[in-house]
Amino acid sequence: MLKNKPKKVSIPFCHYLVNSQKKIHGWYNWPVRECTSERILLNPYNGCSVGCFYCYSRSFPGYFSDWHRNGNIYVFKDFDKVVAKQLDSIDYAFCGYLSPVTDPFQKLENIYHLSEKIIRCFLDRNIPIEFITKNKVPEKVLKYISGHKHCFGQISIVTCKSTILKKLAPMGADIETLFSNIKRMKKYGIFTVVRIDPILPFINDNRKGLSFIIKKSKDLGAKHIVVSVLDIPYKIKSFVLNSINRHFGADIAKKYLKLYKEKIGYLHADINYRKDIFSYLREECDKVGLTFSLCMEYEQINQRVLGLNRIFSSSLNCEGIDIPLYHRKGNKFYPLDKCKGRCLNCSQVYCNNDRFSSAGALKLSDYRKS
Asked: Which has the closest alpha carbon to 127: 80, 81, 91, 102?
């Protein structure tokens, strides 16, 4: 049952406006925490026009469920104003994150500009913010964040083959535009991460192609690579396998049934497959001088779930850049001295705050108590 009586809008395609007072929050610790740095997670849109069939947010309840079933996208009207009020109510802030589960620069951003407005909210208070996208980054956004040393961007490039990309991210940007994002970000002096995320076995795991992405990203100015292999929520397992069958054939879909046997929260590909490809990609990054990390990759040993970054990451922060906790001085926020933002592995607590240093699942109330 959807709440708040969303208002239906038909142009440029059917979507819904929602009045919401939802609160900013941090990472969820499931199945175990792997994100080294805390973030303020921001989702101005629930649902996404890029249309990736494997997106794990398709398994979420509420508005996401309606998006998955019916294609309806929900826009949180004036969410930038809600975020601004919440930022003005706290004295400490981590880097903002646009967006953990939907693309901040999807088509509706051209109408509502919520991501752009939220970026301005953070920068007006001197709080850093990052984005992750499969679309063209607006020039305005690059200009906004270029003057802040702790703002950065992540570009998702899952393949160098156009025919495959149209099936994996049908309404995202083409390959040339994605690579041009890196070049444009370098021009503005913005730290750039490239995400090969996710790798779908037997579909976009060709090693020459993956190596090409790494080398070209380096040549264009990227500094860090993040990788994951597709994991599949049980709730959308049939949908994902049926989509693979439709786009790539029954033989490949059958291979998934054999490969995906590991159950760690979601269904994961066989650990040997994952470790083999991670070893190769780490070596390729080492060769060209890029740091490397994994996103939400685990193994299970004697009923213990362990993150694979402990084996494969070459960066102390999984996003390749150290971004400290910021604290308020008057109307602006400033970086906490000596803090590296490595909350998960924090050995010296400069923030003097157990809620932050314990790398817990932070809520707005936790910021207000600090």
From this structure: 91
Omega within 30 of 0 (cis) for the link into 128: no
- Smallest CA-to-CA distance from 283 within 218, 214, 229, 216 is with 214
Domain holding 361: CATH number?
A: 3.20.20.70
* Global model pTM greater than 0.85: yes
Contacts of 207 (CB under 8 A, 6+ apart): 277, 280
Torsion on CA atoms 209, 214, 217, 218, rounded to nearest 10: -140
Give the structural domain span for 297.
Answer: 7-369
Question: Is 1 inside any structural domain?
Answer: no
The reply to whether 2 falls in a domain is: no
Query: Tokens representing 368?
Result: 């207000």
pLDDT score of 3 more than 60: no
Residues 101/60, Cβ–Cβ less than 8 Å = yes
Instruction: Say if residues 76 and 114 touch (Cβ distance below 8 Å).
Output: yes
Residue with tokens 């037997």: 202
258 within domain boundaries: yes
Chain segment 140-171, per-residue pLDDT in tens? 999 999 989 999 999 999 999 999 999 999 99
pLDDT higher than threshold 90 for residue 80: yes
Question: Which tens digit of pLDDT belongs to each residue from 333-357?
Answer: 999 998 988 888 877 667 777 667 6
Please give the pLDDT value at position 1. 44
* 355 located within any domain: yes
Q: Which residues contact 239 (CB under 8 A, 6 or more apart)?
A: 53, 58, 68
pLDDT tens, position by position, 202-211: 999 999 999 9
- Residue 271 CB: number of other CB atoms within 10 A? 17
Domain count, the chain: 1
- Taking only the tens place, the pLDDT of each residue in 304-328 is 999 999 999 999 999 999 999 999 9
Question: What is the separation of C-alpha 79 from the centre of its chain, rounded to a whole number of angstroms?
Answer: 19
Quote the tokens at residue 153.
């961007």
